[in-house]
Amino acid sequence: MEFIKCSVAGTAYGRGVTEVERAMAKRMGSPLIVNDERITNGYWIHEPHSEVIQMFFRLLAICHTAIPDVDEETGKVTYEAESPDEAAFVIAARELGFEFYKRTQTTVSFMELDRASKKKVERTYELLNVLEFNSARKRMSVIVRDEDGKLLLLCKGADSVMFDRLAKNGRQFEEKTKEHVNEYADAGLRTLILAYRELGEEEYKEFNEKFTEAKNSVSADRDELIDEATEEIEKDLILLGATAVEDKLQKGVPECIDKLAQAGIKIWVLTGDKMETAINIGFACSLLRQGMTQIIITLESPEIVSAEKAGDKNVIAKISKENVKKQILAGKAQLTASSSDPYALIIDGKSLAYALDDDIKNTFLDLAIACASVICCRSSPKQKALVTRLVKEGTGKTTLAIGDGANDVGMLQEADIGIGISGVEGMQAVMSSDIAIAQFKYLERLLLVHGHWCYRRISSMICYFFYKNIVFGTTVFLYEGYASFSGQPAYNDWYLSLYNVFFTSLPAIALGVFDQDVSARFCLKFPLLYQEGVQNTLFRWRRIFGWMLNGLVSGIIIFFLCIRALDPESYRKNGKTAGMEVVGATVYTCIVWVVNCQMALAVSYFTLIQHVFIWGGIILWYLFLLAYGAMPTTISTTAYKVFLETLAPAPSYWFVTIFVVMAALIPYFSYKAVQMRFFPAYHGMIQWIRYEGHTDDPEYVNMVRQRSIRTTTVGYTARSIARDNRLYHLNLERQAPQS
């Protein structure tokens, strides 16, 4: 947060600065960018309304909850504030000569330049009450007693609530201040209005009694009682001016939003900023662009303004609701008339309160879903949570919320996935979220890389578990049928117990942890890959049943080939045929080989661990046969020296194993070859162009992007495509008259 400009007594202060000056200010340890010689270095005392300027910066130095920390060696003061805005205000006041340096439970001390003596003097104000900021009040006040014994109420808050609380004789600079606030909002700056009033002793005494009683209340309506008490005192204010603070976009935000839009993710912005500020930020991060039609829903019509002046709350609510409903229906009609053009929906907090009513919210949701971008401005924390719930329940889609402040907590908890950004806004969002990241740009890698990998790994692992257990179960069932359901087991008891423990489970775990269908670089280069998760192509019932069918076919091939190869023929040179223990061990060997080789075919990215687990599972089976067969017959039963004396010496055992494994894998291998060549999925297309070396060829890249489930209408990629299309059509129009 950087204090950029301010408007005091109807005069705008603060001029544009160069990057060199900005870097210099940061290097000197000051985020102050108000570069205006009229108020810096004490020159404000020569301004026409110097007494108003003095009160303005006094308010900034007093009306806050920041804690000063004075370095004993250097004497430099630093501040611990609840929010970056507060820190920026206190630092701005310090840099302009109003240095807050001490706070106790009952006093606030600061240094200022005395207008009469033009020397720095120390001021100590008695701190009587702090009326804290909340999302409903949208303002904060302190009540102090100055050194002359005057009682002062100092207040700062959003323009939407502050202008309505001005006294008739306190509106001297209202028009000019509103002009400047709109200009600041257009520049993407956050604004606050500053005002004050003097209190009488009796008035304050009556308020303090009521306020203390409300604070000490333990009833359920405690907050309402406090709000009622503060409502009565925070009125008839005298306007001082407005502040403008720059909340800069973090590095990489536009690029991240562009990639997320290409991935098929719908992006909504829920912010407490003014509409003009939110729109400019939307353009800055490419959520909005030139040529995108804006559907703006607001309650600024003359009809609403006149009703508000009349003051009848019921009439205002009724007219406002009808007005919002009318605007939403008009927006839907506009979309229906021209469904091909991209639209952006922008709605303010007042309108949103009515749009979320039960009888309107579904219509509002239909309009919002049809728009490419949605920006909700001046939203309270409760409204953010309600909008998130509306999208989650109304669409049935998975919702992800990301925020960095305490006012985002409700939204983070309401969404299916909450991501908190740790930083200067505090840790409330992080503590309430499922995942914490340091910057917004890391969301790109979290979703497009790790999100895609995780979805593919888990879906493939689950399908593989179905496959390997169906292969095993099919052979058990067929053997029972072959034995006339006599109850004779196909395998030794320990074979049954260890199948899912040692011989086939570790490769599945390795698949779920290490596999990568494409590298991280290509996941970021082709955000389209993420749409496999959006469309659920890898975990739909068709794929699950496909793997189950593959397991059934593999089980049938293994069983009948082993039975036909071993049953009628003499198994050894002495003419003995294969007994139940030989057939069972051979079938089991083929199963272990097939399910592990199937894993080797399914894996896209081999690591040393996967090699160890896949081939180690097969080797472990043979080691188990040797160790278990060497035990006494009371323990090994049918497996007693079956491998060492019967299986290993017989060439037919090894021949059958190789032949059956190849035969069981041919159906899957053939299916994958045809699919990869003629019907590749997104990751298959990228694997092909990587294999053929066309990853940097624009033609191939565009070919992949054209497979998107929806046209990308948000982000700088969409903006450049739209610009190219406009130039293309303009050239066609110019060529038409010539031909």
UniProtKB/TrEMBL annotation:
It is an enzyme of class 7 (translocase). One of its GO terms (molecular function) is ATP binding. It is a multi-pass membrane protein. It catalyses: ATP + H2O + phospholipidSide 1 = ADP + phosphate + phospholipidSide 2. ATP binds at E86, F133, K156, R190, T271, G272, D273, R378, K384, N407, D408. Its EC number is 7.6.2.1. It comes from the Eukaryota. Its cofactor is Mg(2+). One of its GO terms (biological process) is phospholipid translocation. The chain crosses the membrane at residues 465-482, 494-514, 544-566, 586-605, 612-631, 651-671. Keywords: ATP-binding, Hydrolase, Magnesium, Membrane, Metal-binding, Nucleotide-binding, Translocase, Transmembrane, Transmembrane helix. Coiled coil: none annotated. NCBIfam families: ATPase-Plipid (TIGR01652), ATPase_P-type (TIGR01494). Belongs to the cation transport ATPase (P-type) (TC 3.A.3) family. Type IV subfamily. This is Phospholipid-transporting ATPase. It comes from Artemisia annua (Sweet wormwood).
